[in-house]
Amino acid sequence: MVFILGTVIGSFLNVVIYRTGSGAGLRGRSKCLSCGKVLTVAMLIPLFSYLFQGGRCAYCGAKLSVQYPLVEAASGLLFLFVWWVDRFDPVVSNVPEMLAYLFDTAAWSLLLVIITYDLYHKIILDRFSAIFALLAGVTLFLKWRFGLLTPEFLPVFGIYTSPWLDLFAGPLIMLPFTLLWFLSGGRAMGLGDAKLAFGLGWFLGLSGGISAVIFAFWTAFFPSLFLLLLPRKRFTMKSEIPFAPFLVLGSMIVFFLGVDMFTWAF
Ligand SMILES: [Zn+2]
User: Fold this and answer.
1) How far is the CA of 39 from the centre of ligand 1 (A)?
2) How many angstroms is it from 58 CA to the middle of ligand 1?
3) Is residue 72 part of a domain?
């Protein structure tokens, strides 16, 4: 059920991704982008309508973007993963746990929108990053309010951190990205990545945020190397690849697998 709910939200996220910046607004019935016919309810069932229609519009046969089922499936899986991590149970869970689940699903939905949009348009919209930072900020406040911000033990350094450090995690993790952007004149890193990193810092905390950034660089390194080695120099050192998907991948490693480089006991 959590997965199905996630695919339904995913189908709404597709609408957000497509209509943002198109001037169409979020209201109004969904239409085929090719023939303009209004889609019936049966054609709007996440995943299934795409599969049963063979990836084509039922009216005109135009090919539908594979983005639709991919975002729906990804959203379903994210909802499932968040549910596993938060162990939310509508019967047993208390209010803080319910709020944590709500805010975490909202945050991951937004990250899905951000990376899909970034892959298409090579830009991270400020409004998405701002809403994400706001969500992360509210989550951090709630954790503090319910006493869930606890000191973390860092085995590497043999010390406990103050949970107050997490309040500075946003600006601290944004800082290196802003410097990279500034010093390279925007060539090595976009300012959009810096703004996204701000929200991720608050979302994951200081040690989790730094871990996510390190994982992002590691996971971005090998695909980039592969692209550089492609024949006929289709990609050079000047080529741009979107970094946001790797930032989100790094965050997934931290959030879903619970891997935090600093609190790890070896
Ligand atoms: Zn059509």
Assistant:
1) 9
2) 7
3) no
How many domains does the chain contain in total? Answer: 1
Residue 98 lies in a domain: no
Identify the domain containing residue 196 by its residue range: 129-266
Contact partners, residue 159, CB within 8 Å, separation at least 6:
153
Nearest CA to 140 among 129, 131, 128, 148? Answer: 148
Quote the ligand 1 centre to 41 CA distance (angstroms): 15
Mean pLDDT of 188-194: 86
Are the CB atoms for 239 and 183 separated by under 8 Å? no
Distance in angstroms (rounded) separating the CA atoms of residues 255 and 200: 11
pLDDT tens by residue, 73-96: 999 999 999 999 988 888 888 888
Ligand 1 centroid to Cα of residue 178, in Å, is 44
pTM (2 d.p.): 0.89
**Which residue type does 98 have?**
M
